[in-house]
Amino acid sequence: MRCGVQTPSEVDSLSTITTMSLTRRDALKGVMATAVGAVTGATVYGLGYERHALRLTESKLPVAGLPPALDGLRIGFLTDIHHSEMVSADDVQQAVTMASRARPDLIVLGGDYVTWGDRTYVGPVAELLGSLRAPHGVFAILGNHDDDRDMPAALTAQHMAVLRDARTSITVLGEALNLVGIRFWTRRAEDIARLTGSARGTVLLLAHDPRRLVEAASLGIPGILSGHTHGGQVVIPGFGALARRNFPVVAGLASQGRTSIFVSRGIGTVYVPVRINCPPELAIVTLRRDVGGQPA
Q1: How far apart are CA 103 and CA 285, in angstroms?
Q2: Where are the domains of the chain?
Q3: Whether pTM exceeds 0.85
Q4: Residue 165: which pLDDT band, with cuts at 50, 70 and 90?
Q5: What is the DSSP track for 15-68?
Q6: Which CATH fold topology does 55-295 show?
């Protein structure tokens, strides 16, 4: 009987166990601290810098049946501006200036000019966008944050053509390009078909929501421009955008059958004034002839 006296070997063993336990605990604390630091740093960066770091991007949209006269047509695409307390006039002006310097052939505005229809910013954002000019015109559609009266009226007052479940066309070297703009709430294929059915020439669908890819593909519409997703706004390395499961494509180019779509990350932010691994963009989308599923 040892009356509780520990032998040297037992002391060494206990010391080893204690040291291992402390080492694992310290390692776990280190990992947690690193993770918290990384998240905090990314959030600060996304709040203070990345959401303002507007980029000019260039994409080629393959369009089935595109005539040679329209091959190479450059479209300046600005969407999801969300002028608000979180998205300043300077942010909007930066996008307008960048678009003007890019000198596209035509300009498309993809909706969500303000947030939650805030009338405080309706007039100001329309005035900021009013200086946009392009040889073949400036065309606008509405998003889910835009009301159906004040916002289109403000844009129209700035001499922009607002397409609310409507179609118009431009002519380039004798070839027609039909621009079909739909409201966010126009979702049924038969409603879209009523706008495209009698169109002669190439049809480009302007749909704020990229989920309209399904209906467009069923109707054989060759090209779509969309926004709405903000590119996910927060993209986690190794995981992707949080919104990726809700949309057929969150950002960039995709296709379904012979229908191609480009989805812009947009300019502003919503809900939280943060972008992480998802900078805002002003997109220049060039229409290209689709040869075997690839741009010519």
Answers
A1: 12
A2: 7-48, 55-295
A3: no
A4: very high
A5: HHHHHHHHHHHHHHHHHHHHHHHHHHHHHHHHHHTGGG--EEEEEEEEETT--G
A6: Purple Acid Phosphatase; chain A, domain 2 (3.60.21)
